[in-house]
Amino acid sequence: MKNPVYPPALGRAGLMILLAGQLLPMIDFSIVNVALDAIARSLDATPTQLELIVAIYGVAFAVCLAMGGRLGDNFGRRRLFCHGVWLFGFASLLCGLAGTVWMLLLARALQGVGAALIVPQILATLHVSLRGREHSRALGLYGAIGGLAFVVGQVLGGFLVSADIAGLGWRSVFLINLPICVLVLGCARLWVPETRQNDAARIDRPGTVLLALLIVFLLLPLALGPAQHWPWPCVAMLLAVPPLLWALWRVELHQERRGAFPLLPPALLRLPSVRFGLLIAVLFFSCWSGFMFVVALLLQSGAGLSPFQSGNAFITLGVIYFLASLQTARLVERFGKVVTLRLGCVVQMTGLLVLMLTLSRAWPQLGVLSLVPGSLLIGSGQALIVSCFFRIGLSDVPVTRAGAGGAMLTTVQQAALGLGPALLGAVFAHRLHTTGGDYLQAVLTALAVELCLMAVLVASAVRYRCR
What is the pLDDT of residues 209-223, one digit of tens each? Predict the structure, then answer.
C-alpha cells in the first residue's frame, strides 16, 4: 500500500474541534446513568431495560468502530467525521423525543453507530497531521479527555435532569448534544484537514458480522438472564459464544492468508502484548462502566439523592483522574508500564475497599463528601491503568500495523464498556432481588465482584512480566 499524502499540519482550532467531537460520544457513555431513575418513571422501564439502554450504545459503538475507521481511510476522515457527527445529532434528537423504551433503545443504537464513525477519524487525523511534540501533546490530551469525559457525563447529566430545563427532564441529557453537533459541523470543514489512504482497503464484512453476533450473544444473556431466571434462549446464546469465537478466528485467519485486511488480524493476536492488552480492556473497562452504572443506581434509587447530587458525587473522581493522568508519563518512564499498571490496580482496589467501608458505615445517610476518600483513590488508580493500556497493547506491534492494532484494542475496549453495565448490573439486580430490595448489599456484592476481577488483572500482570 502506498504511503498517504500528508496534509498541512493540524492547527490549534482544528485540534479543539476534534477534541470537542471526541467529547460527544465519550460523555454519552455515562451521561445517561444519572437519568435512569427518571427514565424508569417516565417510560415505565424495567431494570433489565435500563441496563440495555446503557449497554446497547457501547455494543453498537464497538461493533461498528473498526468499520468506521476503514471507511474513513477509504473515503476521507473529515468527511466520515462530519457524517458521524450528523448521525449522532439526529440519533440524540430521536432519544430526546422517544415515547417508549424500544424507541429509546433504537435511538441509542444509532447513537453508537454515529460515535463509531466519529472516534476513529479523530485519532487517525492526529496521527497523520501532527509531528513531534505537538503530536505527543495532542495524544496526551486525547487520552486525558477521553477518560475525564466519562465522569463529566455523570456530573452534567445530574445537573440537566435536576434543572429540568423547559420541563424536558431526562430528555435534556440527549438534546444538549444538538447545539454541540451544529457547532462542530460548522467548524470542521474550516479547520480540520481532509486525509485519506491512497489505496482503498475492502471492509471485512464476514468478520464484522461475526463480531457483532459474538457481542450480542454475550450481552443479551448477561443482561436478561438473571432477571428472567435463565430461560433456555439465554443459555443457548451463551453456549453459542465459543463456536462464534472459533468461527471469527477461522474467518480472520483466512482473510489474512489471502492478503486481505481482517478486522482482527491473527498475526497481532499472536503477540503476547496484544493479548494482554485485550485482557486489560475486558477486565478493567467492563469494571469501570459497570461501577459507574451500579453506583449511580445506588445513589438515586437506594439513597434517594437527586440526579444533581448523584452527579456531583463523581466530581472528585473526575478531577483526580484528570490530574493523575498528567503525571502518568513520568511514572511509566521511571517504573515501566507493567509496574505502573499493577500500582494502578492496587490503588484502585484500595479505593474500592475504602468506598465499601464508607457505604457500610454511612448507609443510608450518604453524603457526597463521605465518598471523597474512596473517589480519590479510585480515580488515581484508574488514571494509571488507562495510561498503560495502549502503551502495553501496542508495545510489540510493528509500526506498519499500528493502525490495525489500535483499532483492535479500541474495539474490545468499547465492547467492554458496553458489557460492564450488563455484567455488574446483573449482579446488582440479582442481589437486590434475593435480599428483598437491600440496595446496600446489592452494591457491596457488585463491588466485591469488581475487586475479584481486578485481582485477576493483577495476577495476569505478574504472569505477563515474568514471561
Answer: 888 888 778 777 776
